[in-house]
Amino acid sequence: MKHLKSLCSLIGLSILLTGCWDSRSIEDISLVIGVGIDLEEESENISLGHQIIVPPSNGGDSSQGSPFKNIYTSGKTVHGAIRNLALRDDPVYSDHQRILLIHNNVLKKYTLDEVINQLVKDDKTRRSLYVFTTNESIKKIFSTTDSDEIPSNQLYSLIENRGRSTKILPAVSLGKVSSNLQKKASFVLQNVEVINNQVALAGGAVILNGHISDQDLSVDDIATLNWLTGSIEGGVISTEKDSMPLAFEILGDVKVQVKSEYKNDRMYFTIHSEAQGRISEDWNEEEDSFKEDYSADRGRIIKDEVEDRVLDFIHMLQTEVKSDVAGLSEYVKVQQPDFWTEHKNEWNRYFTEAEISFNVSVTVEDFGTKGSIKKRISDM
């Protein structure tokens, strides 16, 4: 019995020491960090760009070459283009994919649902990857870097700057895109451009019924959309006081409350927003920050600027875009469930005819140090 136990122990140790029988060296696989979808110029085929991580050499020194490589394939379908990669490179693993970049021309020919169909079906592709659109060629964006950083990683990281700019949309993941398409909701995808040889976020593409709209959004439109939805974590809004520049820095999240009402076959929305911040720049040489009404006066100016921009933007959504990319339908589903059940297929019509009011409360918490310096000088 004692010998039998020893034999079993030896067999168990032998199994543990063998390691993973199907393991492969990292140099023998291709870890995809970003995928770009374009149209092949000479044919009707899908063109696929794969941005692949190049691991450091055995010595751990990656300075000898680029940390990434780009491989381009084509096919009648997305999956076909992926499998054609096997003719030129090691097997592809999409477990670490962080971004999906789609050329706008692709979405003019195919629906977004068709384009992402293979990725959604693939259980290895992460639902959390970010989806972007672009008017630039995929090859140009995937080869643009001002350092040794990987362009896909740069794009992914730019979304994290939302605490510093109002002109960046909340991240739109593959899972969120799929959900929106299933709900037949309209939404916006962040657009990407190359500016001064740098990859940059620039405006947004409107997705209606799965297709890209001819009406795109500028970076300023994105900022206004974020004010309307309350999707702001920080940033700056600029305006004027007596023809002199005035800047307000938003500190923290903007809060939004939305109330909907249905009467006389029409939807009514009351949207209230709250923002706190500081006067970060005031070019008015006559300003006196210590006047009792200084903060209130500047707050009113910022309030008027935000409300004017948002109301103009709402008018554009109702008359030009003609679709609810602000997601007001989500409030209707909760607050007016009977109406939604009966009229959800007619929502775009009700949205364009809705009466929407918007107001914002702006609290100026401080105005920096300039006022205190002026005060000390005047007391001398």
UniProtKB/TrEMBL annotation:
Residues 22-193 form the Spore germination protein N-terminal domain. Gene3D superfamilies: Nutrient germinant receptor protein C, domain 1, Nutrient germinant receptor protein C, domain 3. It is a lipid-anchor. It is found in: Membrane. NCBIfam families: spore_ger_x_C. Residues 203-368 form the Spore germination GerAC-like C-terminal domain. Its main location: membrane. It comes from Alkalicoccobacillus gibsonii. Belongs to the GerABKC lipoprotein family. Keywords: Germination, Lipoprotein, Membrane, Palmitate, Signal. Pfam families: Spore_GerAC, Spore_GerAC_N. This is Ger(X)C family spore germination protein.
